[in-house]
Amino acid sequence: MTAQEAIKRNERSQNLKVFHLEDSPWYYVESEEGKICYKICYNNESDYFCNCGDFARGFQKDSTFKCKHIMAVMNSIPEGDTASVNYLQRFRPKLDDNFIKKIDEKDFVLYAGLLDVAHQKNLCLVDVELIQYPLEENKFTAICKARVETMDGKRFSDVGDANPQNCNSKVAKHLIRMASTRAKARAFRDMDNIGMTALEELGDLNEVISDNRKPLSAEKSNVRKFARPEEENSRTKKINSVKPNPSASTDPSLEKNDESGETVRTKPVEPAGKQVKSSQIPENGNGKGNGKTKSAVPMMSEAQKSALYNLSRRRGITLEDIENRSMEKYGVSIEQLTSEHAGEFIRYLQLAS
Fold first, then answer.
1. Whole-prediction pTM
2. Whole-number Å distance between alpha carbons of 184 and 114
3. Residues of each domain in the chain carrying CATH 3.30.160.20
4. Which CATH number fits domain 97-207: 3.30.160.20, 3.30.505.50, 3.40.50.920, 3.40.50.2300?
5. What is each CA distance from 237 to 225, 258, 261, 338, in whole angstroms?
6. Mind listing the pLDDT tens digit for each residue in 247-295?
7. What are the residue ranges of helices labelled H in the chain?
8. Which candidate, 16, 40, 158, places its Cα nearest to that of 90?
9. Which of 41, 114, 142, 292 sees the fewest Cβ atoms within 10 Å?
């Protein structure tokens, strides 16, 4: 056996699993396919035996011949200690957990993870064919067919489609590329034996959110309750009834009742929150300014709020984390953000990892 042949056999022996029969020179070595085990007797470098056909043929020509199974045993035994054996685990392709994303208690795999496993399985060919070009008559739907192949000759293929209705608005201008990615992802899933849906196959995260789950915008609301007009009138009547000099009031809606002697309003009072217009708020906030007024700072709109919570779902950021970030950046909770700060906060989350 030449030195080059010995090196090749040694490389092939590295991933073979070795089993040792305790307190004996006998070992079992699993085949590369993992279907059978070969029996080896190993005492030292000059006294060994294997029941595989390769050893039987090679030993007849060369008394120093060692098959890969014998080399696997030699590599597993620490020098000078035959009682302890290291079990060599055969390499198996595995999906890294970092490529798995959980959304609403459901697991999804990233395209990068599928590609990683495909390379572990010796991917040698990826071919994508455009079957349908996006046009107005087909509602701008692009369809691609992907074909993948491994070095051992295994082939897998599947199709993927993309149109403005099943794609995010940011990628709606790249329908062909999106259809290609989806087709490859589906082919890789078959090749990798991964049943999870690829995240790139989803058009909108709302597709996976459970119908029984309340939307995030409904969990916290910045809608404030206002008193009804009749309740406000009742409270005003009670307060004004204790004033001794109603004539001193400049409110034209107040008049004295001749029969009861109480002061009541003759005009309905506007609900709380509508009595003072934003343009009438004094600049110094105490009504004793120099007559100048300024507009109230607009609060976060419902559209901004909806965009904020939808973005948090896409990024996988919890409500508690968003609250903490809002307190760190602006010193207030989400419900108290102004319209300007809400816009800044949305852009911040879009760039956050």
1. 0.39
2. 9
3. 97-207
4. 3.30.160.20
5. 21, 15, 12, 36
6. 444 455 455 454 545 555 555 544 444 444 444 444 444 544 454 545 5
7. 3-13, 53-61, 68-76, 111-120, 175-192, 216-219, 229-240, 302-315, 319-330, 339-351
8. 16
9. 292
